[in-house]
Amino acid sequence: MKKTYTAEEEAAFKRETRLEAEAVRLDGKGGAIYSFPQTQEDPPEIETAVSFIRSDALPVKAINWLWHGYLALGKLHVLCGRPGCGKTSIAVSFAAAVTCGCGWPDNSWSVQGDVVIWSGEDDPADTLIPKLMKSGAELSRVHFVDKTKDIDGTRAFDPSTDMDALRRKIRLSGNVKLLVIDPLVSAVRGDDHKNGAVRRGLQPLADLAASERVAVLGISHFSKNSIGKDPVDRVTGSLAYGAAARIVLAASKDKSTDTRVFCRAKSNIGADDGGFQYDLKQAPLEGHWGIVSSFVEWGSPITGEARDILATAEGTEKEPPGSALTEAMQFLKDALTNGAREASDVQEEAAAYGISERTLKRARAELGIKPTRKGFGKDGCFIWSLPDL
């Protein structure tokens, strides 16, 4: 019996066995298919297969919104912001709206359902449950991920390894509409600054959202010293966090005025602008002496792009003329205006002008100049060039 191989496999087969191939036919699309004599040196059978689905065989579906424009069933979302802006309280406010079927910032109604929360930072008993109570949540509809049981016994739940088990539990529960993972970085094994590691870590979450028709909300932080940059690029860690999420939500506050804003920084499935003002309030928990908890009080809607909304709230200011950073940025523009140059040459010129290495690095980041490698080994070097605008 003869086996068939592609033209690429034929070439590899020839190199390894030095056998002549017998061309038997063409596949009708310009690619030759060959048959080879069976020998003990034949490569193993190829068992992996790819299937196609014709587009006209798939039904067209509308986005199923939990909160229209902001949270979608079956999708992965990221909520990011500066420390102290109340990201967890915002997530709890969302949970309350889902359990009650109402209470979104725009006063719209929600599909009512259950909420699952995993938190690696806050204790449910003394922090999250009081927040839920102050937010008006139906506690019977809120479930906290507790332990994981496997052949080795009972242990703490690990978002980076136990997502399939969580998916099965959510399916058995039957009416979960929102899953909160805090912090989202816990779902990633390895270096969360590497795109590959982040995409592998977030894929099970995205699969869970799609298969169980659940809105997944992961909470993250803004990177340090990122004020003024594109909000999606400010998500701490790899850029893959923002890329993997279908919607990125952002929150921040002005420390001087305590103004807080919540907005859409990215959406692949709807509008990607606008948001709401909000206040983070604290009050005693009725019927529980000595317990004070925070909660979100939503304010007026705001319009505009996320970058502008955050810049206004955070008081972003440009470097004054004549500052070291401004001068370094102008130097780089002049040095690279005629095209790419070796980084070492530019660095030497900058040093001669009295520009420090740190300031030059900041200027390079502000201008979006990303080093690229040219050549290999000792003959290789890094090249700098201004980005295409």
Labels describing this entry:
9-stranded mixed sheet; 389 residues; 3-stranded antiparallel sheet; 29% helix; Rossmann fold; Arc Repressor Mutant, subunit A; alpha/beta; 25% strand; 3 domains
Provide a quick synopsis of the model.
It is built from ten helices and 19 strands.
Description of the structure:
By secondary structure, the chain is an alpha/beta fold. The chain has three domains: 3-50, no CATH class; 65-314, P-loop containing nucleotide triphosphate hydrolases (Rossmann fold), CATH 3.40.50.300; 324-384, Winged helix-like DNA-binding domain superfamily/Winged helix DNA-binding domain (Arc Repressor Mutant, subunit A). Helix content is 29%, strand content 25%. The chain contains ten helices and 19 strands. It has helices at 7-17, 87-100, 124-134, 163-173, 195-212, 240-244, 306-314, 324-336, 343-352, 357-367, and strands at residues 3-5, 22-26, 32-36, 65-67, 71-72, 76-81, 114-119, 142-144, 147-150, 153-156, 176-182, 215-219, 247-253, 260-267, 275-284, 292-302, 341-342, 372-374, 381-384. A nine-stranded mixed sheet has the order 8-7-11-12-6-13-14-15-16, sandwiched between helices. A three-stranded antiparallel sheet has the order 1-3-2. A hairpin with a 3-residue loop joins strand 4 (65-67) and strand 5. Residues 17-37 have low confidence and may be disordered.
